[in-house]
Amino acid sequence: MPADRAPMRVRADRASAFDGVGMPLIRTEKLTRLYRLGDETVTALLDVTLSIEAGDFAAVMGPSGSGKSTFMNVVGCLDRPTSGRFWLDGEEVSALGPDALAAIRNRKIGFVFQQFNLLDRLDALSNVELPLIYAGVERGLRRERAAAALRRVGLADRIRHLPTQLSGGQQQRVAIARALVNQPKVLLADEPTGALDSRTSLELMGLLQALNREGATIVIVTHEPDIAAYASRLIRFLDGRVLSDTRQEAADARKALQKPMQPPSTPAAPERIPAE
Ligand SMILES: Nc1ncnc2c1ncn2[C@@H]1O[C@H](COP(=O)(O)OP(=O)(O)OP(=O)(O)O)[C@@H](O)[C@H]1O
Ligand SMILES: [Mg+2]
Known about the structure:
Elements: E1 24-37, E2 40-53, E3 57-61, H1 68-75, E4 83-88, E5 91-92, H2 98-108, E6 109-113, H3 124-134, H4 139-152, H5 168-180, E7 186-190, H6 198-213, E8 218-221, H7 225-228, E9 233-238, E10 241-247, H8 253-258
Parallel strand pairs: 3-8, 3-9, 6-7, 7-8
Antiparallel strand pairs: 1-2, 1-4, 4-5, 9-10
Helix pairs in contact: 3-4, 3-5, 4-5, 5-6
This protein binds adenosine-5'-triphosphate and magnesium ion.
């Protein structure tokens, strides 16, 4: 086990995503999701059996259409499997109806999307407050917790900014604060760096690594091997199945950030065409 995965610091004051390490937090058994389109059946997920443990930082990779988003949506309680079972934090979720599923999603899952999905007319603080409104938290406490979540992602000085007044990286940080504010069991991020440039992506991975060091359980989907290198587990999908699932020594985004970024490669000078 790599050194940075060894004893995870567990903060007594922080519930859920930041508690017990090494227990399966998500367990799936032959999870299958079929889509029926007219006479055709599309197999988006097929017999996926795996466990995500508390404290994991997993990257999910695979070609377009291999089932990555379907997997995230099912375990994130945004979608339901056609067959198979899955447990979240010891509770079987696959058997629940839509209302119970929505309640679990709000309490236990933090979801981050490629396109941030912030509400443009609300400032950063109000965006982060939204899950707390759904959870019935009273206003004073809501503001306090939303401001704390924004501080945690390094945006203490931007809480009154509208999404349009923030950079892409800052907007994604707001989305992460919003995903974490309910202290979910797991943070699921589907291509969180997909809309960001390489430096900003690296900064975001630095933030996710810091959260993971504090004990947060994180699963991200990415197409970029350079991004997956910052996770300590790599799960590859192909045609709706798990092709491989390996632990790896995670690269350190903080260290990478200290190095100057490679300048964009300059096109080679055009070859001289010898004068006739
Ligand atoms: N709502 C839907 N109706 C029908 N088929 C769908 C639907 N959503 C996804 N699929 C199909 O399920 C398969 C898996 O899709 P999914 O979105 O999970 O892939 P992905 O690995 O996330 O791909 P990408 O890297 O392009 O985001 C694909 O073949 C896709 O066409
Ligand atoms: Mg996808």
